[in-house]
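Q: What residues go here?
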């Protein structure tokens, strides 16, 4: 029997609610994510499955460089919104042809310890649900769901204390040209998946099923059945609460809805003063930007880590950057390893050594030799 207390609305401990807040502006959808995490942590909402609907929106991952990932001029001309997620991962394009979903739940609910195990189990549940529609959907590590090698759903999430948010999308229909214009998809990323273009990399339910493609309600029902089968969930349908909407509005106004938050991570404006290094690993690409200080320039003035990686909680990257400020160059590599040795890191296929390699690449060969 669960040791959790009964949750709101008389729901037995361990039960999920299902909500659909309707079509919301992109940044407000992200603010609602943040509100739900906060309210779940304080016990004011139960474990929840949420379905999410976007107007045309280009979203970058929490740690990505905005200008590298999105064509901002195209987005402005076409009226495509821009937003920064609170989860990691790569840039995505969303509109009425994609269905978003998210699970916000206690880490004990499913009995899954690590983020990799969570990703595999939830992706298998989503793949099982989509297979009910007549497609051969399968989980592909680290966090994709594919049909015949083409991506139909991308996912990602993180732990924040004892609360986990894990979310993803399902491609029902897609205007590939609009996606291609809005996103700057690196050729190296496509090559990892054996695709010549972003359009070849993805597939939609419409392409697979034609006139048999179900509506949004049918896809949502299939996903819920997949969650029930693979995760053993029970649920009841409810509505988003006023407390959630009010707190989301606060997060939107104070941070997530602001241009400053969306542009928080971007290319350094004084590029000549920075060096950079990139490290590709199974869990994504990590790029380190470093500005040196001192005379000679033998200390770290500032570090910025960017990329499409997943780490939990996301703020650990900001803490890492702050911990490196002022260190001697020779101390930088060991300091990264030491930082993570003192903290619990939940990640998808990235490790402390990957951050160290990106940093040492930015600092140059001499730094790597000195820090051995």
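A:
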């Amino acid at each position: 029997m669960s040791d959790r207390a009964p949750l709101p609305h008389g729901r037995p401990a361990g039960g999920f609610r299902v909500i659909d807040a309707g079509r919301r502006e992109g940044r407000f959808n992200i603010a609602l994510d943040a509100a739900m995490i906060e309210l779940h942590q304080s016990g004011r909402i139960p474990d929840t499955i949420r379905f999410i609907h976007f107007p045309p929106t280009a979203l970058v991952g929490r740690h990505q460089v905005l200008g590298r990932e999105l064509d901002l001029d195209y987005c402005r001309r076409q009226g495509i919104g821009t937003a920064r997620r609170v989860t990691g991962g790569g840039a995505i394009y969303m509109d009425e042809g994609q269905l978003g979903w998210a699970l916000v739940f206690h880490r004990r609910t499913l009995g899954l310890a690590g983020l990799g195990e969570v990703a595999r189990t939830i992706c298998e549940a989503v793949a099982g649900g989509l297979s009910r529609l007549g497609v051969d959907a399968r989980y592909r590590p680290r966090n994709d769901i594919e049909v015949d090698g083409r991506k139909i759903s991308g996912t990602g999430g993180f732990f924040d204390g004892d609360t986990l948010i894990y979310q993803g999308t399902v491609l029902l229909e897609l205007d590939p040209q609009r996606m291609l214009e809005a996103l700057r998809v690196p050729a190296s990323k496509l090559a990892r998946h054996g695709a010549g273009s972003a359009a070849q990399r993805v597939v939609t339910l419409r392409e697979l099923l034609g006139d048999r493609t179900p509506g949004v309600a049918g896809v949502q029902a299939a996903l819920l059945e997949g969650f029930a089968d693979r995760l053993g969930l029970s649920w009841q349908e409810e509505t988003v609460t006023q407390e959630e909407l009010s707190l989301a509005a606060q997060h939107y106004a104070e941070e997530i809805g602001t241009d400053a938050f969306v542009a928080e991570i971007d290319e350094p404006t004084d590029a000549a003063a920075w060096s950079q290094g990139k490290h590709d690993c199974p869990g994504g690409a990590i790029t380190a930007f470093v500005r040196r200080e001192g005379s000679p320039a033998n200390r770290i003035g500032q570090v910025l880590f960017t990329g499409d990686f997943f780490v939990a909680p996301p703020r650990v990257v900001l803490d890492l950057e702050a911990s490196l400020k002022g260190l001697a160059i020779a101390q930088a590599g060991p300091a990264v390893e030491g930082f993570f040795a003192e903290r619990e890191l939940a990640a998808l296929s990235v490790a402390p050594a990957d951050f160290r390699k990106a940093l040492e690449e930015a600092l140059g060969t001499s730094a790597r030799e000195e820090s051995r």
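A: Context that may help when evaluating the design: The chain has two domains: 8-262, 271-370. DSSP finds 15 helices and 16 strands in the chain.
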